[in-house]
Specification:
This protein is of the alpha+beta class. The chain has one domain: Aminopeptidase, CATH 3.40.630.30. A hairpin with a 7-residue loop joins strand 4 and strand 5. About 30% of the residues lie in helices and about 30% in strands.
Length: about 190
């Protein structure tokens, strides 16, 4: 199912498919500081961003990947990106990043929640995965806030050569808020 016309609105955000028009902002904001605890690395050059966006658009058209730009709904300020990857698999996977100057405003949570609510209505999926580095307390709060439960741990080396200590959260479809707290202790699984 082609997803290239998908638009998702939340209270404060507008999520729209990533387009080449966003390449400059993506290149400027997807920095080493943003990606420190993520698998991808910042783009080495502008051409890498253009290739990534072209691949994202192919995934949208094929219905296998939904990569979206996060915009503040009133001002249309670029805040970051959110995605749902491996659509059609048993456990599609969420990913999100917020530019440094917009962090600590719960935009990441709101974007993932909005994307999850859309996916709950549009996709036949019982559960999503959300991989989070154990040291990334902000992303752990997103997973916990959506009712996520840790189902596995994995250590991998990211594209920048750093070791990640991943906690893989399972987030059930249809559940949009956690009814009990889960641990976000950064030292818990190092």
């Amino acid at each position: 199912m082609n997803q290239s016309d998908t638009r998702i609105e939340t209270d404060r955000l507008l999520l729209i498919p990533t387009e080449q028009d966003h390449a400059g902002l993506y290149y400027e904001e997807f920095t080493a500081q943003v990606t420190e605890l993520m698998y991808p690395k910042p783009p080495a050059n502008f051409d890498e961003v253009r290739r990534f966006i072209a691949e994202s658009q192919q995934g949208l058209e094929a219905g296998t990947n939904l990569h979206m730009v996060i915009l503040e709904k009133v001002t249309m300020e670029f805040l970051g990106c959110v995605g749902l990857h491996s659509i059609g698999s048993k456990h599609p996977e969420f990913g999100v990043w917020i530019k440094i100057s917009a962090q600590r405003n719960r935009y990441g949570y709101e974007a993932v929640q909005g994307l999850k609510e859309w996916a709950d209505k549009k996709l036949q999926c019982g559960e999503y995965n959300y991989p989070v580095d154990a040291r990334n307390s902000a992303s752990k709060r997103i997973a916990c806030g959506l009712g996520g439960k840790i189902i596995s741990y994995n250590e991998i080396t990211n594209m920048s050569g750093k070791l990640l200590h991943l906690e893989i959260y399972a987030i059930s479809a249809g559940i949009n808020r956690n009814t009990k707290s889960c641990s976000i202790n950064q030292d818990e699984h190092r």
